[in-house]
Design goal:
The protein has about 625 residues and is α+β, with helices and mostly antiparallel strands. Helix content is about 20%, strand content about 25%. About 10% of the residues have low confidence.
Length: about 625
């Protein structure tokens, strides 16, 4: 369903370039109540919109965030409830902490169609003449509403599969009636419905999962496939059956067309014999960064996992129910995969009981065959178990040694994310930045929108004088091109932070002196105002002219000394004495101007850059 002329569907708007003007129509799926911004006195209103294009998209399926700032609350869009349809003209695409946001400006116009007043398409004929849907907005904006725009709003509300139960009528119209998940045939006894879980209220069995619902799952990994882009596919089971997921045929059915979750062979995964369980028991989970970094390096087939906040989704007509694990909207470095190492967990005990009963029942039916799990002798199993325990302990010891060397006066906002070296982040061989096409050709991506946690030392900085770390803020004419939070500036604030740090992988304190002279890859990380304020913490005032404020300059020097030691005073022959610290890094890209001589040397005319965020000097 194409949007009316002059409008973008939400998937296109979500991927639009920074500062692009867009007009959009979407269904409200989330609302943050309006509140007054302390610094400016303006009212801020944030909500999320969704349409079918964005719901079925890889990125942004949680909705496009829209943000309004107005001098009074009455001027904000009159959204009353989830399910309202909103028409917005002349927004501008911005970015907040790596997430696209559609921002209002002086030219933005808004119309709200209350969800309860929108008819189903069956009754929409009454609105094809002079009649108009009930809408909330400025009278002149209501008068501009076209029949095409009105028809699109009616059809959008009907066709969108909404996650909330209050929209059940639109779900059944779109997807058709779903069959209830049937009880496991080869597995253990069904659990009671009123079950209290040690994992919380979102815990579900695979058989309980449904489209557009979120779930925490306790599962065992059957298969794992890693892609060259760093993503990962996990095929997991808890030995319960759900007829909405992919079917895996047992060997006795002799179904040679069955593939690993891909009936038509599009994914072209290796056609290894499926180890079981068979039937509708194995859920495919699509794992993205940063969860995939953990899965690719730490998770093996056969491991037991707790998967948090898995979004269940049927991507398109004829597809099956799968799980998605995307990056968290708020805490971008959060890892939602945890390995379960203890059998004391009740949910894991139940899973193991179902697994044992499944294979015992299958063995009784089919007698020993090649499709059963390999039976190892007791001695071999003990040896493998001990070896795995030793490997895990070695990893723990190595991590502990790294932690012991870090600067304890610098805190990273998420210390659970997997650490990556500067060398791996830069990806000098382009292993993570190479995209292969179906015809066998490939090209290098200029950048990847992702975030990392790393441990580094500062070896250089720009500008060279600390007095220049605070620069005059943009004029009012240029403010529209500032980062999203720039609209919350205090009018009396004349300066903003802006500086860059050169980072490299640390040299262990125990390393010989000659090892310190070995050249290492370096990365420049930029800090704009918001990230710098977070770095300095609450005890640093808003920036001023540092050339005339010696007190603030001294405070800044004290803060930076904690971060980089004697770097400011050292000579060229000296080695900087600063302990490594952990920080969050975001990779992003900017398009170079045509006249920029560097444009010819970078992929697709985009330059890869990095920013430091989520890091605080204590």
């Amino acid at each position: 369903m194409a949007p009316p002329e002059g409008f973008f569907d939400l998937a296109t708007a979500y991927k639009a370039a920074l500062y692009s003007p867009v007009s959009i129509i979407g269904v409200v799926i989330d609302i943050m109540p309006p509140h007054r911004v302390a610094k400016t006195g303006h009212w801020m209103f944030t909500f999320k919109l969704l349409d079918q294009s964005l719901q079925e998209s890889v990125y942004g399926s949680e909705g496009l965030k829209v943000r309004f700032f107005k001098e009074n609350e009455r001027s904000l869009p009159q959204i009353r409830d989830l399910g309202d349809v909103v028409l917005l003209r002349h927004l501008k695409m911005m970015e907040h902490r790596g997430v696209p946001v559609a921002m209002c400006n002086f030219a933005t116009k808004a119309l709200v169609f209350p969800g309860a007043s929108i008819p189903t398409p069956t009754y929409s004929i009454a609105y094809q003449g002079t009649n108009r849907l009930q809408s909330l907005g400025v009278p002149e904006d209501i008068a501009k509403l076209s029949l095409t725009e009105q028809a699109y709003a009616i059809k959008l509300k009907a066709e969108l599969r909404m996650p909330d139960a209050k929209f059940a009528n639109t779900v059944t119209e779109t997807v058709g009636k779903k069959r209830d998940a049937e009880p496991v045939h080869d597995g253990g006894p069904p659990e009671k419905k009123a079950r209290l879980s040690t994992f919380g209220s979102k815990f579900q069995l695979v058989r309980e999962t449904r489209h557009m619902k979120f779930a925490d799952l306790c599962v065992q990994v059957v298969r794992k496939f890693s892609s060259q882009f760093g993503n990962c596919e996990l095929y997991v089971t808890d030995y319960t059956e759900n007829r909405e997921i992919w079917y895996y045929a047992p060997p006795e059915e002799e179904n040679t067309s069955a593939r690993d979750g891909d009936d038509y062979g599009y994914s072209k995964q290796p056609k290894k014999a499926w180890p079981g369980p068979y039937g509708w028991m194995t859920l495919k989970v699509n794992v993205k960064d940063p969860h995939s970094l953990f899965a690719n390096s730490k998770v093996d087939e056969g491991d037991f996992l707790l998967l948090r906040n898995v979004k269940m989704k049927i991507m398109a007509e004829g597809a099956k129910l799968e799980g998605d694990m995307w990056r968290d909207d708020v805490n971008h470095a959060q890892i939602n995969i945890k390995k379960l190492m203890s059998n004391d967990v009740p949910e894991l005990q139940e899973l193991l009981a179902r697994k044992e009963k499944y294979w015992a029942k299958r063995q009784a039916r089919h007698l020993p065959k090649a499709d059963e799990p390999e039976k190892l002798g007791k001695t071999e199993r003990k040896r493998q178990k001990k070896q795995k325990q030793q490997e895990e302990q070695a990893k723990v010891d190595a991590a502990a040694a790294l932690v012991a060397e870090r600067n304890k006066h610098v805190r990273c906002s998420n210390d659970e994310a997997l650490l990556m070296s500067v060398k791996d982040i830069l990806d000098l061989s382009n292993a993570r930045h190479t995209n292969s096409l179906p015809n066998g050709n490939s090209y290098v991506l200029p950048f990847v929108n992702t975030q990392y946690r790393t441990k580094v030392q500062v070896v250089d900085y720009e500008p060279k004088a600390l007095e220049d770390f605070a620069v005059p803020r943009l004029s009012d004419e240029d403010e529209e091109l500032s980062p999203i939070d720039a609209v919350e500036w205090d009018a009396s604030q004349k300066f903003e932070w802006y500086f860059s740090l050169c980072l490299q992988d640390p040299t262990p304190a125990s390393a010989p002196v000659q090892a310190r002279d070995v050249a290492k890859p370096r990365m420049w990380a930029h800090l704009r105002h918001e990230d710098a304020q977070y770095l300095f913490g609450n005890d640093m005032d808003d920036p001023q002219d540092l050339r005339s404020n010696s007190q603030m300059l001294a405070k800044l020097r004290e803060k930076m000394c904690i971060l980089w030691g004697n770097l400011e005073e050292k000579t060229e022959v000296e080695v900087a004495s600063n302990r490594p610290f952990e920080c969050c890094i975001q990779e992003y890209g900017i398009e170079l101007d045509d006249e920029d001589p560097e444009k010819a040397d970078v992929p697709l005319g985009f330059k890869k850059l990095f920013r430091m965020f989520g890091t605080t000097i204590l």
